[in-house]
Amino acid sequence: MSEQAQDPRERSEQQQEQPRVYTPDFLTDLFRNPLDQGYADAAKRKALTGEPRGWQATGIRVVSALTLVVVGFLLVVAYRQTMAEEPSRSQARAGLVEQIEQRQAATDDLQRDADQLRDEVSRQRDAVLDDRDAARLRDQEAAAGLARVRGDGVEVRLDDAPDAVDAVTGAGKPDLGRVLDRDLQEVANALWSAGAEAISINDQRLTATSTIRAAGSAILVDFRPVNRPYVVRAIGPDEMEDDFKDSATARLFRALVEDEGMSFSVRGVDDLTLPAASDPQLRYATPSPTATPTPRTTEGGK
């Protein structure tokens, strides 16, 4: 005989007497215990030991004060060393600037002497040659950039934007408002394309061997520095001004004026005088007197 069925009420009372097992999920446990276990343990230790005693608190304050004093002392020493070295750096910089100015003045004097000697050579040469040969030679020198030229032309003026140079360091900022060496190259090429017969940049005459390049933040024309504002003068036909204004280069710089604040202007000028360029240092390839040609052989020894 099977056991009698248990009364449902008794079974319900037994289930109520058994403890319920509850397993919390991660989020519930996180909200219930928001502090890390390390914080909880530190709070328990603080509750057991209490606040630091008087001598402990005083020791902590003394250590903190000593640390601040040491850090302050190190800062003062570093500042004094920096200020002590500042005069020597300023003196060295002033010496370099003075040397550059002296060398620049000496270069200008030599250039004036060279111009005077060139004029003297031209006068002596014209006295020897007849008028036709002398005129032809002068035309060739003017075309090569080795003689002064006069005529009507165009003046293009460029300058950096007002905020293109750092006010503290004086260094140029890497933005589009600063005139670069390639900008002067593009202006010169556009003037040549517009029919220019002679061009100078800040009174530095351009020739077939001229270079426009950058050295750090400076721009060199034939290895001589030019300073802002940059003035490009060109002698050419009457329509040269209009052709240059319609060029893609002029449109680009007008856009830079509107967007970046660069200074750019073009105007026609009557009776321009462009200086002569320095004599170019040309090199010629010559065959070696001891070289002998090596015969070439084809397939089969012929």
From TrEMBL:
The keyword Nucleotidyltransferase does not apply. One of its GO terms (cellular component) is plasma membrane. Residues 1-23, 277-302 are annotated as: Disordered. This is Membrane protein. It comes from Phytohabitans flavus. The chain crosses the membrane at residues 58-79. Residues 286-302 have a biased composition (Low complexity). InterPro entries: DUF881. Residues 1-14 have a biased composition (Basic and acidic residues). Keywords: Coiled coil, Membrane, Transmembrane, Transmembrane helix. Residues 100-127 form a coiled coil. Pfam families: DUF881. Belongs to the UPF0749 family. The lineage of its organism: Bacteria, Bacillati, Actinomycetota, Actinomycetes, Micromonosporales. The keyword Amino-acid biosynthesis does not apply.
